[in-house]
Amino acid sequence: CDIDGEGVTSWQYSWYKDGSFYTYSEREHTFGSIYESDAGKYSCYGVERGGSRRSQHSDEVTLIVS
């Protein structure tokens, strides 16, 4: 999740798939198994842990499963 941290050192990451909330995860989201249904456009943003700051959404990354 490549976001502008603006000095924040501890983020909670929210991941989105095709514009809808997908999961909370770490900066790097890893799939245990991958299925065709996992294909889509993914993005994320961060919320400061114990604070009130939020990042902008990241650019979307397209996952193609074939």
UniProtKB/TrEMBL annotation:
Record-linked InterPro entries: Ig-like_dom (IPR007110), Ig-like_dom_sf (IPR036179), Ig-like_fold (IPR013783)
Domain Ig-like spans what residues? 1-62
| PROSITE patterns named in the record | IG_LIKE
Transmembrane residue ranges: none
Top-rank lineage group of the source organism: Eukaryota
What is the official name of this protein in its record?
Ig-like domain-containing protein
